[in-house]
């Protein structure tokens, strides 16, 4: 199993083109996070071109944060095109559980078997059909409560499932790791989960899904912890996070990543 | 009448879920401003779920900055659902007076009697049917010129009307206060009025509308003044404002708020 | 020929209202860049009002970054209204060459003869019908490779064409200049080309197109170089760029602009 730093080095060396269909709140943040780690982001969601572009890009992320019926068509078309071209794609089921539309959309996308499913504990519990206590986009459940649901979903989709929180959990249904990092301040900054989804999409291109997802979480979590220690609050945290992601070296990531097999 | 600091403490203690239908320029800023003061924002505007979500959230903000006919349907449905569920909602009639579409949309939403109407002087004048001299989204009129219009609109809607500018004015048609704060630098930063609308929406949940609106303006104005003194320009002002809102204590707000009864 | 500083002074003195139909990633950045240089931005793209507003505004920018068929109608209507009212408008053909939809849309807008066409080298090559090697929104070609294509497009449209990169190139088909400035760090920050397009739109109002476009590139490039020297990475670069644009004086711009006639 290659180290997180080796994954980061490959990402920097290949600078993959990543297509993102994400929400309006997060678009700028996701693009800047992908640029900071070394990828080339493209926000392409129009139904007129989303599937065509998925054939050009190295990978895709789909985030339902502000989706509607029109965006649903683009998401489905792009995800199908990515799968057909053997490109990895990530699903971020933002606030699933909150409304009927969101539940139907997330279920439809999950049935397309994303390479990686990434969410908070309440979202993963809701997707697995269990009772969750999320409030809007925020999780009301600890990561530990969603570990079984994550394993179940990984086995059902054949993909990787990542649960983000105080300690992240990543599983492919067989293997599983926990990853320390981040900072409570990140809960006071919008689109942090969306940015992590974007970073996962960048690490995935041309790399093994489970290992790449672990590396992405380790990189983002370490950068978050460093940036929080330097920031004066949630406003200065955002710029500090991007500076830290950009300055992160493979050696630093390997030395400081908090990964533990379960 | 409870103090502004008491309102801030209640907001922090309850961390209300606030739904926002706002414009594309402001979405990220509004979400981060609400998080910084202690609320849990959710940007939910799709017609497929906007009204359903309004029943779940503690309050709603509606901002017409980049609306079109599709968004109009969502705004009306969400505002009606909020009213039906006795949830407070705020209307921000961005750039009303500039185009026919904007005038019709703002009038339609105003007829739904928002709990709070918040705008700059030109917008409040335009909504009241008087001659205004706004330029796009920027006010061309001083707050003092819109005080009578604000009283008139408050009496007509039965709600609170707030006019933002160098000195803010808040009235419920009977009582009125002026609030000092802010900084001219905020006129060189986009979406500051939208962010204030979001902060008003956060303070409103579970609190009395007139007092909560005054507290929100005092909090935002004080944070703006402090942040402007620390910032090196309009770019560093944005992060400084969020840091300051996050660090504001109820005691500081009570000690430094510039509120004067009219 | 008036100096860049003289153009900046005129912009600050007149504070023109500029309408922008730009992409979701860039809206906040474009608005803040225009505010920082002294303009009054308005993001107005709804088909219900885009053309009406173009008659009110002093100028218009059209950026196809996240366009779809609905936005295409607004872009065409606003560009036609701007032209009919003798208002200058800028076209930014983001990622043209990537998809068939994007190629058709850019060609249709180009046929409306924008006052200024601004893009990276791959975009200008693609628009001129030559082979380009762009990757998503990023250029794969040096500016020098697109100078002939820029001259050709300027002659065909009767407007100004600007190619942005390590050294910018601006031509009206007859005259041409190269402009030094910027920093490689800007390639790691999203929406920098879009922000430059917004700054060009601000300089254009009431000023001669070729000279104003040169002045805008000189101003943005100088600010970018100064901000990059002060920033700790791509995250802190954003706020530093806006602070620097806001603090730029006409005298500083005239003293330090790196403009050379070709």
UniProtKB/TrEMBL annotation, chains A, B, C:
Recorded metabolic or biological pathway in which this protein acts: Cofactor biosynthesis; thiamine diphosphate biosynthesis; 4-methyl-5-(2-phosphoethyl)-thiazole from 5-(2-hydroxyethyl)-4-methylthiazole: step 1/1
Cofactor(s) the protein requires to work: Mg(2+)
EC top class named in words: transferase
Domain of life: Bacteria
Sequence intervals crossing the membrane: none
EC numbers for this chain: 2.7.1.50
Catalyzed reactions: 5-(2-hydroxyethyl)-4-methylthiazole + ATP = 4-methyl-5-(2-phosphooxyethyl)-thiazole + ADP + H(+)
Any one GO MF annotation of this record: magnesium ion binding
Residues annotated for ATP binding in this entry: 118, 164
Biological processes per GO annotation: thiamine biosynthetic process; thiamine diphosphate biosynthetic process
Nucleotide-binding recorded as keyword: yes
InterPro entries per UniProt: Hyethyz_kinase, Ribokinase-like
A Pfam family assignment: HK
Range of residues in the leader sequence: none
Binding locations of substrate: 43, 191
Its job: Catalyzes the phosphorylation of the hydroxyl group of 4-methyl-5-beta-hydroxyethylthiazole (THZ).
NCBIfam families for the chain: PRK09355.1
Family: Belongs to the Thz kinase family.
Name used for this protein in its record: Hydroxyethylthiazole kinase
Organism from which the protein derives: Thalassobaculum litoreum DSM 18839
Annotated gene: thiM
């Amino acid at each position: 199993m290659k180290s997180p730093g080796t994954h980061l080095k490959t990402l920097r060396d290949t600078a993959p083109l990543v297509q993102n269909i994400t929400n309006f709140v997060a678009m700028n943040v996701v693009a800047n996070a992908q640029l900071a780690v070394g990828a080339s982001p493209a926000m392409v969601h129009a139904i007129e071109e989303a599937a065509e572009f998925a054939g050009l890009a190295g990978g895709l992320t789909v985030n339902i944060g502000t989706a509607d019926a029109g965006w649903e068509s683009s998401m489905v078309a792009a995800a199908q095109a990515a799968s057909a071209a053997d490109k990895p794609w990530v699903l971020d089921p933002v606030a699933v559980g909150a409304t009927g539309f969101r539940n139907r959309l997330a279920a439809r996308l999950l049935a397309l078997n994303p390479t990686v499913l990434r969410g908070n504990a309440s979202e993963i519990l809701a997707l697995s059909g269990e009772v969750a206590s999320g409030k809007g986009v925020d999780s009301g459940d600890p990561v530990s409560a969603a570990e079984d649901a994550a394993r179940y979903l990984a086995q059902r989709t054949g993909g990787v499932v990542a649960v983000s929180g105080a300690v992240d959990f990543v599983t492919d249904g067989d293997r599983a790791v926990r990853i320390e990092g981040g900072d409570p301040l990140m809960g006071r900054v919008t689109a942090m989960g969306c940015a992590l989804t974007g970073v996962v999409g960048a690490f995935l291109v041309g790399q093994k899904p489970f290992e790449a997802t672990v590396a992405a979480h380790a990189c983002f979590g370490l950068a978050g912890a460093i940036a929080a220690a330097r920031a004066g609050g949630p406003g200065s945290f955002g710029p500090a996070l991007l500076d830290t992601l950009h300055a992160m070296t493979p050696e630093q990531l390997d030395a400081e990543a908090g990964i533990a097999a379960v």
